[in-house]
Each structure stands twice: as C-alpha cells, then as structure tokens.
C-alpha cells in the first residue's frame, strides 16, 4: 500500500511536466513597412543633377508613410505549458521597404535649379535582424488552435538603401540608387503575434511598433522623428 501511495505521488508530480512540451516553428511571408512621426511624408521630391556626364539623384525625405512590400523569415522555439500558456523566442530577418510617392523633381544642371512635375515612387529598403520574446496563450476551437503572443522585440538594422524610379518633364526617366547607411543600429519595439494552426500548418500575422527615431542622428534643423512600423503576413510550419 505504501509503495502504491508513493507511486501515485510521483505520478502526480510528473504529470504536469509531461503535459508541457516544446515546439520548433519556421515561418516565412510578406512584410509591409512604413515610418510614422513628424519627420515622415507620404509624398516627397527628387533632387537630381548632372555630373561628369552622368545623372544622379536622391529623395529629399525617404522616410515614407506609405506601405512598401518586402518579405520576412524566421524561426521560433516555443514552450507550451500544461494550461496552454506560451513562452516563445523568435529570431527573424526582415527585408523591409517603406514607400514615398514622388510629385516633383528638381534638376540642377550646374547653373540653375529647375522644378519639373514628376511621377513614380521611392523605396527605403532596410535589412533588419529581429529577436522577439513573447508571452501568451493557446486557444483551442475544434480542430483549430490559435496562438496569441505579445512582448518586446529588439531589431538590429544591418543597413538601409534607397531606390526609386519614375518620369519627369513629360516622360523623361529618373532613377535613384543611394546608400542610406544605418542611423540607428538597434530599435526596441513592441510586437503582437498570432498564429492559427491546423495540424502542423499555420497562418501567421504580426505587428511591430518601433520606438527608436530613425532620424535621431541628423545634425541641424528642427528635430524630426521617424519610427518604424512593420506588419507581417505569412505561413508557419511546426517542425516538432
């Protein structure tokens, strides 16, 4: 009898542990990024010039409020508790692009600066590594499961590059291809993340709200603010 009671007690202690498990998850999909703040614009203009026989230019303000399309990849380790509580750590890569519509081009020929009506758009492309620590819960609805997570995200920008194209002066083509460097290497963000599962396959959505000012390193003039916002939509697969 004593041995039976000891066995029952050991089983009671071990049962919660066996109800817990870890999952390995891979994800991939599209990303849609923009900047928000006093230093961002939905439309801007191009500064263009001719030098040594070559034309070149750049967007006056590349921090666009319009959504630009990119892609996102990531991997996640997730602990599922006995009461369906979740603790997740996600490492990811974002190829993020914001977009700015171009309405005017200022052309400098070495003597005068002439304004032309222009069309087209410019994109600011950033390569970003992300680390997300999420807390949440799994909700079960029949054969479907919904994982909901929220928590801090640390984003490290590897670099930024501006590209754009369009026309000016009734059909003349313009292009930009400018290295924008990395004004802020790290951005502390708040992220919300949800994945709907059917078996091992899931549909994932997340939103990251940045708090680091991308224009903090600029010198001179009034303080301008530009904060990254990223929406990700994609698919996920549970490896384990």
TrEMBL record:
Extent of the signal sequence: 1-19
Lineage top rank: taxon: Bacteria
Keywords annotated in UniProt: Signal
Protein name listed in UniProt: Outer membrane protein beta-barrel domain-containing protein
Organism expressing this protein natively: Hymenobacter nivis
